[in-house]
Amino acid sequence: MKRLPLIFLLGIAVISGCAKQPPALRLIPVTIAFQSWVGHGLFYLAQERGFCTDEGIELVFIDEQLDSDRRDAFKRGMLDFEAGTLDLLITKTAQGAPLAAVMELDQSSGADAIVATENIMKLEDLAGKKVALARNDVGETLLAALLYKYRLSLNSVTIVPGLPEEIAKIFLDGEADACVTWEPQISEALKRPGAHILASTKEDSGIIIATLNARRDLLENNPGLVKKVMRVWFKGLKYYKEHPLEASEIISKYYKITPGQYRKQSEGLKREDYEEQIKNAESKEWTGIFDLIADIKLADGRISQKPDASKCLNFTLLEKLYGDNQ
User: Fold this and answer.
1) 326 in any annotated domain
2) What secondary structure does DSSP assign to 85-111, as a single string?
């Protein structure tokens, strides 16, 4: 299984549509993009274990790390789904991307962190320091939210920008006093002598939440297809919980780490099963988090308008996920 560059997406769609397969074996190609984040590995597991085939779909993985490029692809109708964090959904929808979250994938509970040098011992010490992170990405949101608690803003630090996959290296090369990143890059950043975790989502959970986001026209015109992808995730989650050793053997190769490393890094994730997610949807927990992050982004000037949570969070399919044959 390969992750395909976004530039080839249109060609893939044409090829997939023209491929001649026996009717009984024909699978619906579904494009999905996400960053290299260990939490999304259950989609690889679901594909390899045949859970996608059971639902009559084939996931086409699109390799695009830049959120802005995924935003533009959704605007052009080139992507069907993405696995992404709630904060990035806020940014994209504020910029006109036709997306809505349909379910939670995971919550970071230690898998995202600020790694700092030995002379930075508390969050306030970051003031005036150089911090490496990817702009308009998860790291920026985590830093902004934590600074917000101490009545500080992003303007109190000097941002050293980089691509998401470069952040640990920038810190290791001594170009920044701290970095904000996620696993597996946290483990890399900690290799710098004296480096330590200054703050993480282990102490401040509920900030970084990954969701499955669907193009709104799919939600309106083909909700059955959206539900297939949702069920695939829950099948993968169930398998991982019941067979963690076998599952990590499959997933770890996509991150170029050992199965043991994958299981260790996944300890920083909270993955809720179907019953738990239904409770959260009913309590409107996600709406409160959405509005808080949107308010912070608006105050920091990262978005020019606050998107409507009621249009960006659509959990109605959760209630009917197993209620019919679609």
Assistant:
1) no
2) EHHHHHHHHHTT--EEEEEEEEEESSS
Structural domains counted in the chain? 2
Range of the domain at 135: 112-200
The better pLDDT of the pair 326, 191 is held by 191
What is the rounded CA–CA span in Å between residue 48 and residue 37?
18
Residues 300 and 243 in one domain: yes
Query: What is the DSSP pairing of strand 158-161 with strand 130-133?
Result: parallel
- How far, CA to CA in Å, does 219 sit from each of 78, 176, 225, 317, 325? 15, 43, 9, 9, 17
Instruction: Lowest mean pLDDT of 109-123, 141-155, 171-185, 223-237, name the range.
Output: 141-155
Positive/negative CA dihedral, 303, 286, 240, 323: negative
Instruction: Return the pLDDT at 283.
Output: 61
Residue 315 lies in a domain: yes
Give the whole-angstrom CA distance, residue 99 versus residue 92. 8
What confidence tens digit (pLDDT) does each residue in 295-316 have?
Answer: 988 988 889 999 999 999 998 8
